Amino acid sequence: MISNDLSIFNELESSVRSYIRSFPAVFTKAKGYKMWDAEGKEYIDFFSGAGALNYGHNESKMKKKLVEYILSDGITHSLDMATQAKAEFLEKFNNVILKPRKMNYRVMFPGPTGTNTVESALKLARKVTGRTNVISFTNGFHGMTIGSLSVTGNAEKRKGAGIPLEHVVTMPYDSFVNDQFDTLEYLERFLEDNGSGVDTPAAMILETVQGEGGINTARMEWLERIDAICKKRNILLIIDDVQAGVGRTGTFFSFEETKVKPDIICLSKSISGYGLPLALTLIKPELDRWSPGEHNGTFRGNNPAFITATEALSYWEDPAFEKDINRKADNITAFLTAAVEKYPELEGEVRGRGFMQGIESKVDGLSGKIAAAAFERGLIMETAGVNDQVFKLFPPLTIDDEGLEKGFAIIEDSIKSLIS
Ligand code: PMP
């Protein structure tokens, strides 16, 4: 196949496919922030594999390490046997990420993807506390398996699972009602009130910036208050950093600017650095009370992913990397803020932080149209939110200024084409 002919996908692939509909091209190659389709058209990638490609496509240093490893007959699959690749990853993760942040956690490999880490976190919280209830938040997204879906605050996404799991209570996320409504006063009242009929939960699970839910951003003080509420009642705090972590918000963990040290942290997407499946569940040592084999899975040891993940951590050894992400993130904010002002027809509001930003348009369907117009012009960008009301700028963190500017120009052109 050498064209953008989608017939084999339409004939043979399940109707469940989705991105193929938003991005109707057959892709053949990618490097850095660029992708190419079968007809040679170049695209700027402002999507980054939904956050799995924070270092861009085929990053050169990781590619070299991976090729060398494969050519040396390094172990590919090992379940949870000890391997050199895993040892090197664990050591570097501890030295480069955990120790400098004074974070003392044990590392669990729960299975290959984001939803596996969420499942393991929910199971562990229930086991350790002996309680069943879990508090989730409006518009949260945590994955597509039934446990993760049950804590996902989106009726449309939950529909396919039939009746959601019991014992999950959804509470309003920061600013869900409006900026005056104190969601945490409500939450506290709910927890202390026997009239709520809900026993003390095992855990609360939340994203600090809700990726799929529409780039809703919790304020730092809101996160610190949630942490305090959890501590007061011995409720475990699970931060799902699957999408917001690994630098997306400008720091390695999305909660680094707060005093919060979650009990359990979920990581996946960009942790392998190269788009290979890998997930981690970080557990405070005193909570690591799994019995051997109690949570397992065939693909717990993706050694090629350990190789690229170890190399990816080198970025975090140099403080200039984080500084550069934040400098570029300020440019994204400046572009979006100017766009909202310049094009009032958008009825837009800038959302998010770091490399996790977007515009929510109050005009029904406009964000989706802007993303589609951008695709035609050679920019890949996703929408988010229950009504796809947000278009989301998610470039690789490694993108250069030229790539960002080109992307901004395409977005502006797409907006103009739709409002005038
Ligand atoms: N948690 C969050 C916050 C996510 O954004 C996602 C994926 N979009 C998941 C969990 C699930 O990850 P995966 O698709 O790898 O199972």
TrEMBL record:
The lineage of its organism: Bacteria, Bacillati, Bacillota, Bacilli, Bacillales. Pathway: Amine and polyamine biosynthesis; ectoine biosynthesis; L-ectoine from L-aspartate 4-semialdehyde: step 1/3. It comes from the Bacteria. This is Diaminobutyrate--2-oxoglutarate transaminase. One of its GO terms (biological process) is ectoine biosynthetic process. It is an enzyme of class 2 (transferase). Pfam families: Aminotran_3. Its EC number is 2.6.1.76. One of its GO terms (molecular function) is diaminobutyrate-pyruvate transaminase activity. Its cofactor is pyridoxal 5'-phosphate. Belongs to the class-III pyridoxal-phosphate-dependent aminotransferase family. CDD domains: OAT_like. Keywords: Aminotransferase, Pyridoxal phosphate, Transferase.
